[in-house]
Amino acid sequence: MTRLDAVTFGEAMALFIANQPGSLHEINQFTRELAGAETNVAIGLARLGLQSGFASKVGNDAFGKFIIDRLKSENVNTEHVLVDNHYQTGFQLKSKVTTGDPEVEYFRKGSAASHLSVADFKEAYFQGAKHLHMTGIPLALSEETRAFARNAQDFMKKNGLRVSFDPNLRPTLWKTRSEMVETINEAAFGADYVLPGISEGEILTGYKQPRDIASFYLEKGVKLVVVKLGAEGAFYKSAKEEGTVHGFKVEKVVDTVGAGDGFAVGVISGLIEGLPICDAVLRGNAIGALAVQAPGDNDGYPTKSQLEKFLTNQLQGVK
After folding, report:
1. Listed residue (37, 40, 16) closest to 28, CA to CA
2. Average per-residue pLDDT in the chain?
3. Is 39:77 a contact under the CB 8 Å cutoff?
4. CA nearest 114: which of 134, 132, 133, 87?
5. What gap in Å lies between CA 293 and CA 300, rounded to an integer?
6. pTM of the predicted model over 0.90
7. What is the secondary structure of the chain as a DSSP string?
8. pLDDT at residue 314 above 70?
9. Position 319 pLDDT exceeds 80
10. Span 258-295, pLDDT tens digits
11. Would you state the pLDDT for residue 316?
């Protein structure tokens, strides 16, 4: 049985980042990278020295081979990345911006990953992991991936293993807002840790204040809720403690994509290593701050030594 500190699953895609600013239809040259919220988390955990695994399905094509090779180069376990001979690997285009959020276009409908089903689920692989991290994206891709996600979550809970959940809302993937809210909350209620952004929390709970958003999930049995507040940091609440951990000052924001996944990396890794909640959230804020200062989805994610150096240099200013 493969032993992992954490496992996650979802859709990995080839990513083409514009080499110069401008609208996507005007760009002639792109740099190929890897994209996917869950792959970001798997890579981030691996860079911190944890044993992470990723479960998915890719096409038997150049993009699929690239994804597997790239994950292996990041020391992410790919034993559960299946190769599909019938469907292709998805990809996306992303613009280069000097300020604000980039323009992103997806080419993922009917992809191999969207056909990841319960029949593909390898119990031994998931049982060998201490922790499962989920996002709301697989719940929206297809009925097959939604069933896979529910099965994975139920399996981990039945085996007494921890589950974290990042809503990672993608409204364009859902038929209706009500279906999105109901399905995402169903998964959130079954998680140990829930990590919504403040705007996501308002959509999902109807509350605007971080404490009220957290209480909404705690009343449903969730053990810990951490609400991301952007540049202001994050608010956390459990049955026994709560608090706000302030963010780190960033001189220049290069690209915000992947910042939330980097935050999840920090919180999850901290909790796996047994850090106090406030310290785990502080780590999440730090990796989120590093992430927005780099162009790629996960380029800014640090190694353990890089993270420690950043915290040593910045912590006095945070306090």
Report:
1. 16
2. 94
3. no
4. 87
5. 7
6. yes
7. ---BSEEEE---EEEEEEEEES-GGG---EEEEEE-HHHHHHHHHHHTT--EEEEEEEESSHHHHHHHHHHHHTT-EEEEEEEESSSPPPEEEEEE-SSSPPPEEEE-TT-SGGG--GGG--HHHHHTBSEEEEESHHHHH-HHHHHHHHHHHHHHHHTT-EEEEE----GGGSS-HHHHHHHHHHHHHT-SEE--BHHHHHHHHS--SHHHHHHHHHTTT-SEEEEE-GGG-EEEEESS-EEEE-----S-----TTHHHHHHHHHHHHHHTT--HHHHHHHHHHHHHHHTTSSSSSTT---HHHHHHHHHHHHHHH-
8. yes
9. no
10. 889 999 999 999 999 999 999 999 999 999 999 888 87
11. 64
User: Tokens 């239809």 — which residue?
Assistant: 25
How much is the pLDDT for 231? 87
| Residue-level pLDDT at 318 | 47
Distance CA 192, CA 33 (A): 32
Residue 257 pLDDT > 90: no
**Active site amino acids:** 261
Residues 6+ apart with CB under 8 A from 295: 17, 96, 254, 255
State whether CATH 3.40.1190.20 applies to domain 6-10+37-61+75-86+117-318.
Answer: yes
Domain residue spans of the chain: 6-10+37-61+75-86+117-318
150 phi and psi angles, rounded to 5 deg: -65, -40
Name the residue type at position 42.
A
Question: Which single residue is written with the structure tokens 């935050």?
Answer: 263
Distance CA 212, CA 296 (A): 34
Q: Quick one: CA dihedral 105, 263, 14, 109, positive or negative?
A: negative
